[in-house]
Amino acid sequence: MKRNNKGFTLIEMLAAIAIMGILSTIGIVAVSNYLVQSRNKSFNMMSKSIYQAAQNCQIQGKCIGTIQIETLLEQGYLDTLKSPNASKGDCTGDVIITENGTSTSEYKDYQYKVCLTCPGVYKGVEQCNIWPN
């Protein structure tokens, strides 16, 4: 009489499950790190866009001191800033424009401190960048 053994043993099944668990853990960590890095890059790109919008507004003589991002949106210097964290809302913040030292020529050097808060990014805590770096 022939025995028909076409199944897997318990040890083989446990080994396969353990290997799948290890691979999925590695994959989850890699994807998680990628998402954090992409959100940070998006946040920095938004900050640079705000800096450039504030710079354009300041060059035209319409902005000096502290400007809300909503003001730049209303004046058409900037488009709506969506949170990089999966449609949790719009980003808010302000730009502080200060003269950087004294200038001997007509050209004045300014510093732009862009503070930005996006829901779900950095736990909703305001992050600031100073431009130019």
Can you give a write-up of this model?
With about 130 residues, the chain is an alpha+beta fold. The protein has one domain. It is about 40% helix and about 20% strand. The protein has a four-stranded antiparallel sheet. The longest helix has about 50 residues. The protein is rod-shaped and about 100 Å long.
Element layout with pairings:
Elements: H1 10-59, E1 65-68, H2 69-74, E2 92-99, E3 110-117, E4 127-131
Antiparallel strand pairs: 1-2, 2-3, 3-4
Essential attributes:
133 residues; 2 helices; four-stranded antiparallel sheet; alpha+beta; 42% helix; single chain
> Low-confidence parts, pLDDT < 50 over ≥5 residues?
none
Strand-residue fraction? Answer: 15-25%
- Largest sheet features: 4 strands, antiparallel
| Radius of gyration over all CA atoms, rounded | 26 Å
Average of the residue pLDDT scores: 85
Report the structural category.
alpha+beta
- Count of separate structural domains: 1
* Alpha-carbon distance between the two ends: 82 Å
Form type: rod-shaped
Number of strands: 4
